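User: Second chain of the day. Same drill as before.
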Amino acid sequence: MLKDSTAIIGLGLGGMTVTYEFQEKNYLTYSVNGSEQDIKSIPNAKNSMRLEGYDGLAGNRELAYEALKRNKHILKKLKEIEKKIIIVIASAGGSTGSGCITFVSEILVQNPDKIVVPVILMPRQDESIQKRLNAYNVAKELMQIEELGAIIFVNNESYSDLKKINTVLVNMLDAFLSDTSYSSGSNFDDSEKMKMLKDNGAFVIAMLSDKNSENNRVTTADMVKALTVKNIFLPINADGIVGNLGIINQGKNKIDEHEIEKAIGIPENIFTGSNGTVNIACASGLSFPVEYIKKLGKDASDEQRARLSRRQSLTLLDDLEEIESPVIPDNKPVGKRKRTSLELLEGLD
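Assistant: Same format as last time:
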């Protein structure tokens, strides 16, 4: 099962909190934080590392580069992780996590044998201006890294209880990575799951369990709703773009993949399996939730402009740049941020 080939990295307090739940399910985990208080709040976290010289980044994600540069031993340890799949988790609205996840991800993808899957916890629309601007910027940066695998955008507005969101996320990913179901018919094997995780684009997953009664099985309509409406992720775009659809049927249940196609689009690949312990439906290679993220950033920027105007400040934010889905041009020049990330690689070998 893929669980044995997976490592989890938690960056910042939000990332550490989710990562600790993975640790409780016996995953190999690592945690990185710049705040001693945050680290003390999860005292039993394994492989916990502190960015020395920084007691938190005070919401300023721009300090992350200097913090990592001064703590290259941490980057070296992360770079040496031998697992095939590396899931990197951070709160997009914070500072340590959102500031570090781009650099850490870019360093990890230098090994083409790794599948690097970022998970970013997106703030609610009523959270502070700075948190929403941080989230806009980190989402934009991650979407521009073409070598990444799937990106998981968790919507912290999905439930009022953030712990519930974290637990649902961990349980669903654990079910996906731990599944060992098989049947005499079709099987959703590990190579197909890795294909889903490797494809760059948004990833969503839904999990429902059949009732005890034979007549109360999870229906296809239930799974469609769980995948597209009542879930913990940013909304799926209504553009029909989807790379892969995966389905695991619990026991002898039969989810109709054609109904899911009607809801999200016709995929390039469909992977199905039976005899699972739960019903799972997942999609990868989805187009990024660009419009949602642009609105989050624009609203925060407009509020910041209004606030600065009220203070009669002459310093205004630059206009938000247009975000488009990544395009891979020929002979693409190395961007400034990527050059900066590559500088962190020096001395790690």
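The longest strand covers residues 115-122.

User: Great, on to the next one.
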